[in-house]
Amino acid sequence: MGYDLGSAVGFQLRDKPVSWTRKDLITYALGVGAKRDELPLVYELDKSWGPLPTYPVVLSFKGEDTDVSLFASKHSKDAIPGLPQLDSRRVVHATQSIEVLRDLPPESGPGWKLSNRVVGVHENKSGIIVDTESLLLDSKGAVYAKLYSSAFYLGSKANGGKFSKVIANAPQAKPIPKDCQPNWVIREKTSPEQALIYRLSGDYNPLHIDPEVGKALGFGDVILHGLSSYGFAARALIRAVGKGDRRALKLICARFSSPVAPGDELETQAWEVGPGPNGTTEIAFVTKDVTTGKVSCRSMWTLVVVPFVRTLVTGRIE
């Protein structure tokens, strides 16, 4: 049976109601490594307290939940035309971007939602990748953030050949400079319990807590959520490039190219590469796992664009 993969591209998924509280924002900050000296992220009475701009990336998993939930239940039950049945037990996060359009309030209130559509489908010998565009909307329809993400379904097959179709994606970045040292280098060690904390933001994929699942998927053990590493990179850039101003980060896009184990040390290197739009500066960055020394495959080379209020950035997570 053949599949018309192209017919899935452009498909409008069902809207997803979402909500959050101050506690959710603080839990997320801790899940991406916030420390006791980062009171503007972890102490609700601090005069500068507020959400990290990357918080909305968790909402596709969290939805409106206030308790733990089954990871498999978070995948859309809508039949997407042209796609085979995809196994939610064998999926990893491949890419993520967020463009911040308005400051997020400390509590959502009722009526917020994610409006989602499929904007890309790819098949290769390793599986199927589905790209999704999401708009975070308040109860009046105002857009607060635009997100793109890719889910890689390991081992899934449709027609057995190579296929790729995309109608929208995150902005493309300038390459990381090869002939100069980074302007900023930020090292930070994750904790052995990092994935246990991050999962409380709504991503309860057993891959990040059950060693047997990690072994079954070929990782040897549990791995850290890609979105936790993503948050570590965002925090590093806010501290180093944005001078600690969480509102400075306007756009960050990343491809997750090799796993990080909880407890590993991460190093983010960042370069200023030129002016960006609307008074920002573009920065190229790469986040490496210092503990393992692993780098990404060239075929998974990543460009990340991170605009700041006065500074924009580009990079990759390895």
Describe this structure in words.
- The chain is α+β, with helices and mostly antiparallel strands.
- Helices cover 14% and strands 28% of the residues.
- It contains six helices and twelve strands.
- The strands form two sheets. Strands 1, 2, 3, 4, 5, 6 and 8 form a seven-stranded antiparallel sheet that branches.
- A hairpin with a 4-residue loop joins β11 and β12.
- It is globular and about 60 Å long.
- The chain starts with 15 loop residues before the first strand and ends with a strand.
- The model is unreliable at 295-314 (pLDDT under 50).
Structural descriptors:
318 residues, alpha+beta, 7-stranded antiparallel sheet, 5-stranded mixed sheet, 6 helices, 12 strands
What low-confidence regions span 5 or more consecutive residues with pLDDT below 50? Answer: 295-314
Evaluate the radius of gyration: 19 Å
| Beta-strand content bin | 25-35%
Major sheet summary line: 7 strands, antiparallel
Instruction: Report the order of strands and helices.
Output: EHHHEEEEEEHHHEEEEE
- Overall number of strands: 12
What class, by secondary structure content?
Answer: alpha+beta
Work out the helix count: 6
* Bulk shape: globular
> Overall mean pLDDT score?
87
In helices, the fraction of residues equals 10-25%
- End-to-end distance, in Å? 37 Å
